[in-house]
Amino acid sequence: MHPAPSLVLFTVLSGAGYGWLALLGLAAATGRASELTAWDAGGAAAALLLVTAGLLASTAHLGHPERAWRALSQWRSSWLSREAVAAAVTYLPALGLLAAWALGDGPVRVLGVATAACALATVLCTAMIYAALRPIARWHSPWVPATFLALAVATGAPLAWLVAALAGDPGTAAPGVAGLAALLAWTVKLLAWQAADGAQAVADAGTATGLGHLGRVRLVEPPHSMDNYLTREMGFRVARKHRLTLRRLAVLLGGGAPLLLALLALTALRGAPTPGLAAAAAAAAILGALLERWLFFAEARHTVTLYYGAEVA
Amino acid sequence: MTSLPPTPPPRRLGLVIDLDTCVGCQACVVSCKQWNTGGHPAPLSDVEPYGREPSGAWLNRVHGYEVAPAGGGCGQTVYFPKSCLHCENAACVTVCPTGASYKRAADGIVLVDEAKCIGCGLCAWACPYGARELDPVEGVMKKCTLCIDRIYNETLPEEEREPACVASCPARARHFGDLADPASPAARLVAARGGFDLMPELGYRPTNKYLPPRPRRQGDEDPPRALPDVAGPGGLWGWVDRLLGG
Question: E strands along chain B, which residues?
């Protein structure tokens, strides 16, 4: 599948924003409204900005962005519509938390839990858009929502750590969560890659054309002389050599670097506020996730390629 | 609403495509483009149609395949027309976030309401067959309408109320009819010739059916024999052979 930059950016940025919001929501739910600081509020606002930037990026791949509001209507059947609804709903409790901070009062427990639940539900809906597509064997798997959720938290956690460090928080919780999230997310991702590499092909050129019982089917005359929408959108291929290099780089940047930086903050620096380390961890986590997401699209094979010369998909 | 009709449509209009008789002439491809660029999904845009890299939205395409038997022997060329299969279990409809994509409850035809389409492309991803193409100029999804503006068009003479691809096929390789009615000529053709679904394992339950190439005639399986050498000891050809220095 063609890795459209708008979709790679959208899923990673909004994922990080929602992961961050979920952690902020859970943290807020454990305290009282009067305990919310300007840093907490700033973090929530920044996470919402990140989410909004991601959502705006996603409209860049639409043929008619001005009609995007219509996507709120078909939540009964469509995961893309459910994602739009969940994304819109998440603003309510998140803005509620900001209001609670401004007023110094409010049901932060409810708002915090609701923010976290809505944020994670949005990421789940995003992942299900892909996981529900049967023509793409690599995506039609529960590993896809697991990876999207885990990576959303793993990219949001170092951002939460960064704000905690800027606020001068001497605790070990923020780097601890960031390190743990990185470890968990990339373990899930490695297992997901293993599952996807071993995924059974859903169809082959024989069943796609129904001619398999007669022998081996080979395309000799393509239906068009130049690329068309289908071959551009779904015929994308990435060389095996490159994808293995990119996978290693993604694991090192997205998983290894934040984990090491968090361990460094926790052990050598004993939890002292280290905005530099946190910023580096956040940047590495997001770069790693961008690579992972690019590969997610680039490695996926659609059954339509069977009509254009692929033998299995 | 992008939910599928709650009960199966009473009529299931679709095509039956005969892979035995299709000669790959592309007449259906051209007539489809010609009709639909002025019909229901108009315009059906192209980019650089006369330029170096022509490309555009087409609703019907013909692929040419070579099928080689596993045990060796003569292969065969099969021309394979492909357009929307108007699936019963049409995921292209249910994934649509805006309600633009829908399946008609009366006859099962899958259509796009272009005024609601945001051009997200998800329906094309959900289609295993590659039946949907985004219009490069209009920014909305285009697909086969089964020529609803011909088959129900009372201003056309009755014999012309069939899809443009069916009307134009010189080999009569395309047939149109109600596949829910076992007595319809199309359904009877499917029963008689062993019509099949494309990628049945995906569970989309396409309405369109394909008829397999007929079994080859006796002796066709043997590859042609090698031509005999002309070199011979005597006779006219032997003399010619010697004359030519063979």
Answer: 13-18, 46-47, 55-56, 60-68, 76-83, 101-103, 110-112, 133-134, 141-142, 174-178, 209-211
